[in-house]
Amino acid sequence: MANFAKSRVPRFSAEVYQNPYLPEGGREVHAIVTVTATGGGTTGGRPIPAAGGGPDAGVVIIVDCSGSMDHPPAKLRGAREATAAAIDTVRDGVGFAVVAGTHRAVEVYPGGGRLAAAAADTRTQAKEALRTLTAGGGTAIGSWLRLAGRLLSSAGAGVRHALLLTDGRNEHESPRELRAALDACAGTFTCDARGVGTDWEVKEVTGIASALLGTADIVADPTGLAADFTRLMETAMGKEIAGVGLRLWTPLGAETVFVRQVAPTVADLTSRCRRSGPRSADYPTGSWGDESRDYHLCLRVPAADIGREMLAGRVSLILSAPDEGDPARRPSRPRSEPLSQGQSQPLSQGLVRAVWTDDVAAATSIHPQVAHYTGQAELAQAIQQGLDARKSGDTDDAMAKLGRAVQLAASSGNAETAKLLAKVVDVVDTATGTVRLKAKVAEADEMTLETRSTKTVRVKK
Fold first, then answer.
1. Which residue in 25, 105, 156, 310 has the fewest CB atoms around it within 10 Å?
2. What pLDDT is stored for residue 461 in this prediction?
3. Alpha carbons 340 and 360: distance in angstroms, whole number
4. CB within 8 Å of 394: residues ≥ 6 apart
5. E-strand spans in 95-186?
6. What is the Cα–Cα distance from 60 to 94, expressed in whole angstroms?
7. Distance in angstroms (rounded) separating the CA atoms of residues 88 and 401
8. Are 94 and 118 in contact (CB under 8 A)?
9. Distance of alpha carbon 165 from alpha carbon 162, whole angstroms
């Protein structure tokens, strides 16, 4: 297995788990690809210059300052404290900025369309500037994200990240305007989104995080914001490389059915592919530090006779060269020699095979990794469909879907999701998935289950 390593750049490996055997006429091949990055994200607090002289990383903290943030006042107070805690966690030398979001986006610090380099004095100045934050106005999240994108691209930062906090719905933009902003920002920076309280829209916040390859969560109690923002910033500071793509090559006659990230969360990447050759496509993976993620591939190959074997697909981790025609979309490079435009740098590779056999046991066996993550994806879907049915008043469908979710959570060992489900339904029989809807459910509990429905547990290897 080939690995690529440079100073301070994570070393990537790709391991493929599958049952390659198909019955006569079989066409669908499933595989789990575990991608692991090691050796990055451990800078010891020392800033590393990015290629081209910009900061090694840049981060923008976006704080909702709409009128609802003052009801109760603890929300805005918690947002100030959380932002201050995040600023204290920014590594020396990293570019950072704070944006206040209402029906427009305003630079709070440092201003002038730029990022400030993190140091003792700039952190102090930024925290002083937070005192000017007041609640008033509406909510236009797309404009907040566009400003964050401009600030991050202006500095030529390597790894680019945003933290977004909101407490309400995007009522001063149309869904089309928000979608256009997400499309413009996708690939330029990653974004973690947090909803505080219970007056925000789960699908809106999770949609933002999904589009920008970040995480989404609920912080029902504003007093928990500071700890959450500190954890988020610590994770962001551990990212060492961006612009990494999952390249999937398939032979003539084969096609890709889907590509999904399945751990640590479920995220469908199928529609995000970008053609990179006659038989290959690249799927974005966001920023990386020291971590491991799992991806589920489903490929459809031409049917073949018993005894035939073929390469169904080749998975590569690639580092893309920057697009010189669009500075805002330049992915970061490792701290090494820059790539020429149009090139890509291989980081690691794995192979997906297909073998046709008349051995029924071999052909019908499902690899444990594939079975586990198929169940995790079904679990996330069952929760979302069950909650939608509950909201629409379809009690029977809600019990059926949430009962199935209880079954899947138990069988896969997803104890955290099982606990969240138990706050929404009374479990009569776990094995059969028999449940009753609770008469009263706290809004925060329902929103927490929906927001965290895509979080998965790793399969025991």
1. 25
2. 57
3. 50
4. none
5. 95-101, 105-109, 116-117, 159-166
6. 11
7. 44
8. yes
9. 10
> Per-residue b/e over 300-327, b at no fewer than 16 CB within 10 Å?
ebeebeeeeebebbbbbbbbbbbeeeee
DSSP result, 377-417? HHHHHHHHHHHHHHHHT-HHHHHHHHHHHHHHHHHHT-HHH
CA dist., res. 302 & res. 363, Å (int): 16
On average, the pLDDT of the chain sits at: 90
Distance in Å from the first CA to the final CA of the chain: 20
Its sign, for the CA torsion 401, 406, 409, 412, is negative
Closest CA to 216 of 264, 146, 183, 260: 264
**Can you tell me the distance from the alpha carbon of 363 to that of 24, in angstroms, rounded to the nearest whole number?**
9
Q: How far apart are CA 446 and CA 426, in angstroms?
A: 14
- How far apart are the C-alpha atoms of 212 and 148, rounded to whole Å? 12
Q: Which residues of 148-173 are buried (b: 16+ CB within 10 A; e: fewer)?
A: bbbbbbbbbbbbbbbbbbbbbebebb
Span 447-451, average pLDDT: 98
Quote the tokens at residue 12. 């990537």
Residues composing the chain: 461
Side chain identity at 151, as an amino acid letter? L
Lowest mean pLDDT among 6-20, 189-203, 304-318, 376-390: 6-20
What pLDDT shows up at residue 54? Answer: 56
SS3 content of the chain, % helix, strand, coil (to 5): 35, 30, 35
One-letter amino acid at 67 equals: G
| pLDDT value at residue 5 | 33
Kindly report the pTM of this predicted structure.
0.90
pLDDT in tens, 79-127: 999 999 999 999 999 999 999 999 999 999 999 999 999 999 999 999 9
Cα angle for residues 37, 41, 43 (degrees, 5° grid) = 145
